[in-house]
Automatic annotation (TrEMBL):
Species this chain originates from: Perkinsus olseni (Perkinsus atlanticus)
MF (Gene Ontology): 4-(cytidine 5'-diphospho)-2-C-methyl-D-erythritol kinase activity; ATP binding
BP GO terms, sorted: terpenoid biosynthetic process
Residue ranges occupied by any GHMP kinase N-terminal domain in the UniProt entry: 26-101
Phylogenetic placement of the source organism: Eukaryota, Sar, Alveolata, Perkinsozoa, Perkinsea
Entry superkingdom: Eukaryota
Keyword Nucleotide-binding set for record: yes
Keyword flag Kinase: yes
UniProt-listed InterPro entries: GHMP_kinase_C_sf, GHMP_kinase_N_dom, IspE, Ribosomal_Su5_D2-typ_SF, Ribsml_uS5_D2-typ_fold_subgr
UniProt keyword annotations, A-Z: ATP-binding, Kinase, Nucleotide-binding, Transferase
Name of the protein in question: GHMP kinase N-terminal domain-containing protein
PANTHER family documented for this protein: 4-DIPHOSPHOCYTIDYL-2-C-METHYL-D-ERYTHRITOL KINASE, CHLOROPLASTIC (PTHR43527)
């Protein structure tokens, strides 16, 4: 994301993905509105978004965009709100946004996800490699539908790490076989679903990657994903060489 101040009387947002809404329904625009309301600033912004996270994958792409916009607006206007203050403001935008602002990239979250307890990178596996797998489900899994299925209390889950997997599997049973083959074919460990899906992740260096892709045509695989952390006073820095880490 690239963001700058503008003399225009409203915010502008452009995105290279035509499926992304660029009006007041986008979290970026909503975040800038929240910043002005909370800070009293009259400043507007020009934003260009390069979409990296697939839609409805459970990777927090939209939330990270909103958090980035809020943090950047505070920095560009030199308003001086603390990260904790920004995290508090972001709660009205969504329960996932406070994580990006109140932590440095690793945290234990409780409540509805908006209560953030920062952790060190080492506590969550450090800087080791990960693999992301996006099944060929079109745009992905709608979060409300996953929660609805989860609330029924039925279904299976390949790992106990993410309870929402049960709801996702009710909608897409093939998630079970994909998760199993991420372990059996690619040799990954700790395979689980990200958020409400449909993206799955695992740890390690993938083996027999082409065999896995051949078995699941149309599946998107990002290997050698590296977690991103930030220093105090800085934002998350994503190298251009990374195929997928964040939408910031």
């Amino acid at each position: 994301m690239r963001i700058s101040t503008t003399d225009a009387e409203k915010d502008s947002l452009r995105c290279d993905d035509p499926s992304v809404l660029t009006d007041e329904r986008n979290l970026i625009i909503k975040a800038l509105e929240v910043f002005r309301r909370k800070s009293g600033s009259k400043q507007h912004f020009d934003v260009t978004l390069t979409k990296r996270c697939p839609n409805q994958a459970g990777l927090g792409g939209g939330s990270s965009n909103g958090a980035t916009a809020l943090w950047a607006a505070n920095r560009l206007t030199r308003f001086g709100a603390t990260d904790d203050t920004l995290a508090e403001w972001s709660r009205e935008l969504g329960s996932d946004l406070p994580f990006f602002l109140a932590s440095k990239g690793a945290a234990l979250c409780s409540g509805i996800g908006d209560e953030v307890f920062p952790m060190t990178p080492e506590a969550v596996g450090g800087h080791g490699g990960m693999v992301f797998v996006k099944p060929p489900f079109g745009r992905g899994l709608p979060t409300p539908a996953v929660y609805k299925e989860y609330a029924k209390g039925d279904g299976q889950a390949p790992q106990p790490l993410n309870d929402l997997t049960r709801g996702a599997v009710e909608l897409r049973p093939e998630l079970l076989s994909i998760a199993k083959d991420m372990e059996d074919v690619m040799g990954l460990t700790g395979v689980s679903m990200s958020g409400s899906g449909s993206c799955l992740f695992g740890y390690g260096k993938p083996e027999r990657l082409e065999d896995f892709k051949a078995k699941y045509p149309g599946t998107m695989v990002w290997s050698d994903i590296v977690p991103v952390f930030r220093e105090s006073g800085q934002w998350y820095n994503v190298d251009d060489a990374d195929a997928l880490v964040s939408a910031v």
